[in-house]
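Why do we care about 3D structure at all? Because function follows from shape, and shape follows, mostly, from sequence. That is the central idea of this module. The next example makes it concrete: a single protein chain, its amino acid sequence, and then its structure expressed as tokens.
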Amino acid sequence: MSSVDFLAQEKVWFDKPRYDEAERRFYERPDGSSPPSQDVGANTILQDIARARENIQKSLAGSISSAADQGEIICRIKSLELENHSLYKVVDDLRAALSKLDCRVSVLEKAPAVATPAATPSAPYTNGTTVQQKPSAPVKDEEEEEEDDDDDIDLFGSDEDDEEAEQLKEQRLKEYAEKKAKKPGIIAKSSILLDVKPWDDETDMVKLEECVRSVAADGLLWGTSKLVPVGYGIKKLQIACVVEDDKVGTDLLEEEITKFEDYIQSVDVAAFNKI
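And the structure:
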């Protein structure tokens, strides 16, 4: 920036003597009559003076505020410098600690490996006193005891031992058989559906069903029944029952039911299912 431009931007009061002379003439006027034509210019000068004073006051106020801002900036700069100084100190301490650690590591690496002696078993302590451990028995004694045990074994058993073993075996087999006999086994059952056919349509079906249900046997249980039309007004009796396979069979049922010849013509097995 040139000096001319700098002076153009700077607020300098070059005409101050003129304004001072005009102000002096104004106050020296004897009466309050209207000023002559040359005083009009003086009034204009006074207005300029007042305007200049305002500008000066404003510039002074701005300089004061800028000075306050500068003071705050200076305070912040000082605090940052203190923090920076403390950080430098911490970094220096860390560097010193690292250098010491490197020295110790290098010393340990250069030191020769020292063979550690075998740890001897320490004696146990009980209530502050040392308990003496008993020395373990030599291996030779253990081998002698094993040889003695081998000598006691009889490779050829006597006849008495064989008889006792046989008796023990028979006794155990007998106990097992008794236990198995007492245990209830699984009972096999079957569900049977029978078709009982009458002679004709005049047969009393109620009486026929009573005859069929009168057949009784151990392991036989009669169930539901119904009349099923066959044709020409004839109906057959369809009846269900549950039987135990070991006690009752289909042949026995057919034989017992067909004994009622007055009402029953034939018996057929319609369905047979294991339960």
